[in-house]
Amino acid sequence: MATAAATPPRGGLPEEIVIWEILVCLPPKSLLRCRAVCRAWRSTTSARDFLAAHHARQPNLPIVFQEYHGGQSLLALDNRGAAAAQLQPVARLDDDSSLEASCDGLLLLTDYGRGVPRFSVCNPATRQFACLPMLSGFVPLALGMYRHGPTGEYRVLVCLRDEDPATDACYIFALGSTHPLKNIGWLPEMDEMCSTGLVPVLFRGSLHWHIQQDESAAKVIMVFDTTAELFRRMRGPVVPCSDGLFAGMFEMDGILGMACSNDEGKIVGIWMMQDYESEVWTLKYRFELPFEEIKMQCDMRQARVKRGHMLIAVVPGGDGELLVLSRFDDCLFQINMDGKLVESFHREDLCLTQLQLKQTLALHTFFPALEGYVVNAPPFS
């Protein structure tokens, strides 16, 4: 760890405490402003060990997006501290682009504007953006992005599909590579993973996807070990059919969780994996959303609830708590595990995602080597 002078400046706190207890906890924008205070702060807060510690202290912020004419705005929901939760701008995408994956503060985007989908990568904290090489001959679908521990490379798990289903396969690409590192074949569950756009949760060094088998209450978790780069299956919770709609997976305090809801999205059940090795799940919470209060805030007292009308995501809310994000019409609601309404956002065309952003100011060396590399340009202008 880099050390700083122990002498307090002008009778203040010791420099080491200021840097390693205060600055390391600041949001990226605030930290960048603090770098202008003096050269010592700029040097220390730009060092690799400080940036790693700073990234580790950043929260996982849920990502939502707001559609507008000609594109969409990506927003991060920040509910830290005593102040009211805020929707912070992350990036602006045009109509031809979409968000596919998130990992360590990096966002993977897909651009459909040229007829053939093309990936790009950006870091909202450093405002860096670049295009990834074209993958010719196939239609690429990104299943997830991860950091490969043994090499330190950021890699993308991609399904390449052709007109002939027999040639469908799942490949691993390193960011910036035009050739796959590995072909890991095809599994029956990948059809649902591709068609429904399932978002994985990184837990214990593995990506986890929920798969629902037909109309049964049985849940299957597909697990991808990001070190061995192999798939395996894991048992999910046995959920009553009345609460059988999947509403997202999450990780909190070292425990893997899953949320389900009933047909109307009014009853939410939270399942936690009490024993990962034995694949034992328990129902931790089951509560009703404050639907009448939600309808009143939306000025929809006469509204009728329809199947799938309420969209739900469950996210860690900080301080060891979980929060439910529920979208109804043009309103986004934050609800705690007691079923109490915590916060609401009234914006037109606001949509949920299952992705989260854990910001980083690390300067990745692969960015300048990629095509179309820019800083402070679209999608950040």
TrEMBL record:
One family from Pfam that matches here is F-box-like
Identify the Gene3D superfamilies for this entry. 1.20.1280.50
**Record-linked InterPro entries:** F-box-assoc_dom_typ3, F-box-assoc_interact_dom, F-box-like_dom_sf, F-box_dom, SCF_F-box_component
Q: Where is the F-box domain?
A: 13-54
Q: Which SUPFAM superfamilies match?
A: F-box domain
Q: Which SMART domains match?
A: FBOX (SM00256)
The superkingdom listed in its UniProt entry is Eukaryota
Q: What is this protein called?
A: F-box domain-containing protein
Provenance organism: Triticum aestivum (Wheat)
Q: Which gene encodes it?
A: LOC123059238
